[in-house]
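User: Teach me something about this protein's shape.
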Amino acid sequence: MSRTPSASKKKIPVTRGDPRGAFHDLFDEDEAAELTMRAELLRGLHAWLANSGATQTAAASELGITQARISDIKRGKISSFSLDLLVRLAARAGLRPRLRLAA
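Assistant: First, the predicted structure itself:
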């Protein structure tokens, strides 16, 4: 049985967003830059947690935070973390965070 689109369905044009990421589509340039950095650090910490094999309690002890904060990292709660805290946590995890500026 073949399916044909009904006449009532309209085609929605697809446009490409900002190649730098979704934050640049939604926020001012300065806020988008910070959110992009926070998201990258949070992803790195999430990967570190997944690869470490440690319990949330052990990971929390290693990073010097509570188990609830580890849970926030695992759930991707970006609004729960400042940029400076994420940098410190990434350094404690041995991820060696670095900043690169481009013109």
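Now, about its shape. Residues 87 and 97 are 6 Å apart (CA to CA). The domain at 23-92 is CATH 1.10.260.40 (434 Repressor (Amino-terminal Domain)). If you'd like, I can walk through any region in more detail.
User: That's plenty for now, thanks!
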